Amino acid sequence: MPMSIVSNVAALGAQRSLARAGDSMTRSLERLSSGQRINRAADDAAGLAIAEGLRSQVNGMARAIRNTQDGISIVRIADGALDVTTTILQRMRALTVQAANDGGLSAGARAAVQSEVTQLQQELSRVAAATTYNGTPLLDGSFDTVLQVGADVGETIPIRIGRPGSGMGADGLGVRAVSVTRAPVDLAATVFPAVSAAQGVPASGRLVLAGDHVTPGVYEASFAALGGTLTYDGKTFDLGSVDYTGAVTSTDFLTRLTAAAMPVFQTGHTPFTGSAGGLTFTGAVPGPASTAADAVRLTPTYSGHTGASGGIAVIDRAIAHVTSTRAELGALENRLEHTISRLGVAMENTAASESRIRDADMAWETTVLARNQVLTQAATAMLAQANRSAQNLLTLLG
Question: Of the residues 304, 320, 340, which one is the last residue of a structural domain?
């Protein structure tokens, strides 16, 4: 074997082996300290890309589980309020059945029954308006949204409670018309809904009650026949409460009606106009930032009076509607609970897949570290031997 002073080939080989064992030991120490097999893209470029995709899925499913739990909370709040609504409707029905017993009640007793019915109608509307989730009304007919129940686009479940203009208040359920003290009246009414800025060009809502309110000899009977309630912007006006005593012309009748309604609705314009084709109530134009809920609120609606016997059927329909809605909410809650179960299993398996790619096998890395430590010690010893071998040349030179 040639002996050279300029190039110590044996030392260079030992140094190269020592550097390789040192780098391998450094990687093992890094993996053991972090618990991850992939600490930088260079460790496993393809594995890193796959693992990041799996991690996105795991994080998305974890958030989707919380979203679904929020949906269950929404459903339970709505169902609890509707349980109260059902109790109120059952009480109203019992009172209406009582009031329908003409032979057993005096006018004063029937008025007392109507007083409680009126309070219950108001409570129905209050419950519908007060039932919210994080400030969002649930029972006013405007709740129509979707829940993101998955990690990817399109994994949604819709939730809708009621319909616009058909909430769970007295008006939406149709029980505002229940009256046990007044004769049945139900005028033909045509509603033109308001349009909000979110829906298009803002336009006012209108309600037209059939009848000739301007022709002499006819308008008197048309105004006298007005009955039922008109609801607008959360306020209700009894059309049959107007006193037309002393009114002569159609303008007089219209003035009396407007004077009675203005303090209730507090509109900035004269809402009623009469014609041979009907009596028209016109609401305000929704503002430039108005929503669909504002359009519903500013759309006038009409309810007649049922009388005691007619009120039973109206309340029965309301109870059936609430019961049907609660059944839909119950089925939706079950669906959401199944979704949570599915997401939990999927998240567990996806996390396991990511772990197999990204996480370090601690037992294996410990074995690799021990091997590299031995190799490092051996390479260090051989490098020392190689460096000392050059001194043997001094013997020849001496």
Answer: 304
